[in-house]
Each structure stands twice: as structure tokens, then as C-alpha cells.
Design a protein that fits this description.
The protein is built from one helix and five strands, in the order βββαββ. It is mostly beta strands. The chain has a domain of about 35 residues. A three-stranded antiparallel sheet has the order 1-5-4, with helices on one face. Strands 2-3 form a two-stranded antiparallel sheet. It is elongated.
Length: about 80
């Protein structure tokens, strides 16, 4: 399992319009995010709830495994 990478500060604030989630990122956080861009230029973040009732951001480092090899005649299968 890969190391968990956390970024930013997440804080829920109550306003007269409801709950607002504020996210703050530092220069170091932005550097971490840029280091984990996908081939298409995206970085995925997971907003998670802690056991303390707060929230935090984790960089999603999951990458798909190599595609399964195709076998002769496989494209003719009905599924």
C-alpha cells in the first residue's frame, strides 16, 4: 500500500446560508498536487471525514493496472 498524502486545511463554517466548507492550500500543497498530476493533467482528491468529526483532503494515488491482454477471437465474444 502506498503512503497516504494529505494536503490543505479543511474547515466547515456555519453561515446564515448553511454550512460552507473552506479549503486552504499552501505553496507546498500546490507542489504536492502538481507532482501527482495524471497523464491528462488531473489530480484527484478525496474529502474524508475524520473520527474527530473534522474533514481532511487526501491525494488519491490509485492508478489502474495494465489492461488485460486480448486473446485471439476475444472481440467476437458476446460479453
Amino acid at each position: 500500500m502506498s503512503e497516504k498524502l494529505f494536503v490543505g486545511k479543511v474547515e466547515a463554517k456555519e453561515t446564515k446560508f448553511g454550512t460552507m466548507t473552506k479549503i486552504g492550500l499552501t505553496k507546498d500543497d500546490l507542489q504536492k498536487l502538481s507532482e501527482h498530476l495524471s497523464e491528462k493533467g488531473w489530480v484527484n482528491l478525496n474529502l474524508k471525514n475524520s473520527q474527530k468529526g473534522t474533514q481532511y483532503l487526501e491525494i488519491d494515488t490509485w492508478k489502474p493496472t495494465a489492461a488485460a491482454p486480448k486473446f485471439a477471437g476475444q472481440e467476437d465474444l458476446p460479453f
